[in-house]
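Risk register update: the risk that structure generation would not scale has been downgraded. Supporting records follow, first protein first.
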Amino acid sequence: MVEHIFTEYNDATQALRIKDLKQSLYDDGEVIMDKVLVCLHGDEHKKRRKLENKIFTREIFQKYENIIFPKTINQTLDPYKETGEMDLVDFGFRVLLNLTADFSGIDRPLKSKKETETLLRLLKIFASGATLHHSTRDHDEVKEEVREALKEFDRDFLTPSIERRKSIISQNSNEDLPNDILTVLLVNDDQLNMPYDVLQREIAFYLLAGAQTSIHSLVHAFHEIHTWLESNPSRKGDITNDPIFIQKCFLESTRLHPSSPVALRKPVCPVQLPGNKSADVDDNIVIDLYNSNRDKKIFGDDADKFNPDRETPNGQNLYGLSFGLGMHSCIGRNLAAGVNSKPDTDPNNHHYGTVTMIIRKLISCNAIPDINNPPRMDEKTKRPNWGYYPITFNSEETQK
């Protein structure tokens, strides 16, 4: 067995596009990830992704961004504005919970505090299982927690959600069908023949995926923006008044801080790799996203620095390879990150993505890092994630 590591941007790009390399990042976390979309390969992956893509349309994104999500942000943020402080990591989970529940197809009929806390707890357990490859905890202990959490999730949330959708589907009223992953899978069950345990993991994965990656990106972007402002105080007007610039800040931060520092692949047959290398089926392919995104040949001499004014070469994304490429590119990228702006983009008619929306709202409330309570990294994972990030609000703003 040979381990092939790619740290340069162009090599990493080529490797991500090789169709005979299958996903292997989540092999350790199969307790929650086995046979979910991101781990499938070939025709099975193509068929399921094609169906689930029906939920990730620009029309649905615009509805969430313009109508639904602004209300969610305000409702979640208001109690913290009253106290004047909060943990940004915890807030991220809470503000994204309803969004990921809606898209995955999990009903929240009570929307009570107890229901919210239960779903948050389950979401965090699922996330620990999905990222088991980088976990510093005992892996068997994490797996057992995930198994128990799946049972609770199935009993209290998934089964009732399935029953309600089956009732709607049986009435043959397509106009009234919910726009979510669970409904798509149930409607197309005859095509997929998906075992129930796979359906269970697929919905649990969608519940956690949007929240987990977006929270990571949100906190890093908030930190990078405020660190940058300390050295560039004259640019505060760009942060407070230019939403397109805020989106660029988010995308630049996402380049520097991909949700996973590496992508892992395994060949399904002997393949030719970048650099005239060849790999056999027993080999491991490590695509170093963290360092590839900091390749000075692509992003300039300051590639390892946060620079929201950065201009990238034609054809390259501001966020680098952080959302992946090829068949395993992030299906929810546009929901979280929006679409790239152009010089003639109308800021009043632009899709910014949910994370930029959250950052804009925090900035409008004069949210700043709590200078008396330093943030801490998450010690439960080898991933460079923030585990605790306290912020405070301007006292005058909280009265608005």
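Supporting record for the second protein:
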Amino acid sequence: MSAKVALVTGSGRQRVGNTIARSLAGWGFDVALHYHRSAESAAHTVAELRAMGVSSEAFGADVSDPQQVDAMFEAVTGRFGRLDVLVTTASVWQSIPLEQVTAEDVLRHFRVDALGTFLCSRRAGLIMASQPEGGVIVTFSDWAVRRPYLDHVAYFMAKGCVATMTWSLAVELSHRNPRVRVNCIQPGPVLFPEEASEEERQAMVDSTLVKFGNCPESVSLAVKFFIDNPFVTGVCLPVDGGRSIYAAEATNRKRPI
């Protein structure tokens, strides 16, 4: 029996999506990596996965462009023959003071974070609905959509749509195939920004109840939970070390914590 196939959007760069892709490979999945501008990094990951004996390929696309999304999924199914898991980590995140936010800033975040998630999830979901085994979609929002910090209103507006999208798609796709499930992860400080100072990193750690962060593998484990548990769909799961319920002093800092 051939391996199951997973596609992870935004997995070209060495960020959370890339960690998830590597974890899926370790769990026996064939892995399709998506990139937009990180072709070289994606190719390097593909080479590493193939060296592990995993069937892997990288696919470039702008997830906000319906034609490019359709072409990517045609290429993925043409290469692998099926699709069992989609994880949508492709995102833009930019710090912009409220007074400087333009209409284009808002639209840019919506095009990638909201529309891009929808286009990929719908296409993947309809492919999965045609398979007897169904499939699993894992979208990505943010823990702070309910407790937003400063200077990211465009980002939070777009990410806030993802929860409603997840619930809607879970309903829509289950009516086409009950074995298609859709869930959402809302990560906290699971990967520190490279430019973060030691003080900022410590503040992110202090903002959690578990008193650590910078742990992208924790997100991989959440993805695995959604894949493995057939009785869970339409769920938005914070993976934030308790940050979303902790009234820490740093609540309104400008950097995500």
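Residues 103-129 form the longest helix (27 residues). On this basis the risk owner (M.S.) recommends closing the item.
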